[in-house]
Amino acid sequence: MMKDNKLIAEFMGNVHPTNDTSVGLDLYTANELRYNESWDWLMPVVSKCFKTGDDTHQWDNIMDAMFTCDINIVYVQVVEFIKENERLNNEYVSYNEAPYGEQ
Fold first, then answer.
1. Distance between CA atoms of 45 and 61, rounded to whole angstroms?
2. Sign of the C-alpha dihedral, residues 97, 7, 3, 73?
3. DSSP string, 65-78
4. How far apart are CA 63 and CA 51, in angstroms?
5. In which band, very low, low, confident or very high, does the pLDDT at 83 lie, cut at 50, 70 and 90?
6. Where are the domains of the chain?
7. What pLDDT score does 52 carry?
8. Distance (Å) of CA 61 to CA 16, 21, 24, 89, 92
């Protein structure tokens, strides 16, 4: 959980979800981040996920999780979304950095 909370904090730009102040990882230890236990922390992440990317399949997974009203299930889907989003972004960067003619 701590590793995933850190991943979410980085995805969110290290901004506190309820008061827009920095949650730089130097201000909070990973075990003080509350994305996995507070809807107040997690819902801004869900909102950002819906504004990020264009893969509706990923959004569907989060929506399905939201219907359960179980924060643990939503949390897992948000983490999976962020990991997949990072993977896709890394592939895009790698592709665009390839020398001309090697793509």
1. 14
2. negative
3. HHHHT-HHHHHHHH
4. 13
5. very high
6. 2-97
7. 83
8. 25, 29, 29, 19, 23
Q: Which of 89, 57, 61, 82 is nearest to 4 (CA)?
A: 82
What is the spatial distance between Cα 58 and Cα 78, in angstroms, rounded to a whole number? 9
* Integer angstrom CA distances of residue 90 from 37, 48, 81, 84: 29, 19, 14, 10
Pairwise CA distance, residues 31 & 34, whole Å: 8
Cβ atoms of residues 77 and 49 within 8 Å: no
Question: What does the alpha-carbon distance between residue 74 and residue 70 come to, in Å, rounded to a whole number?
Answer: 6
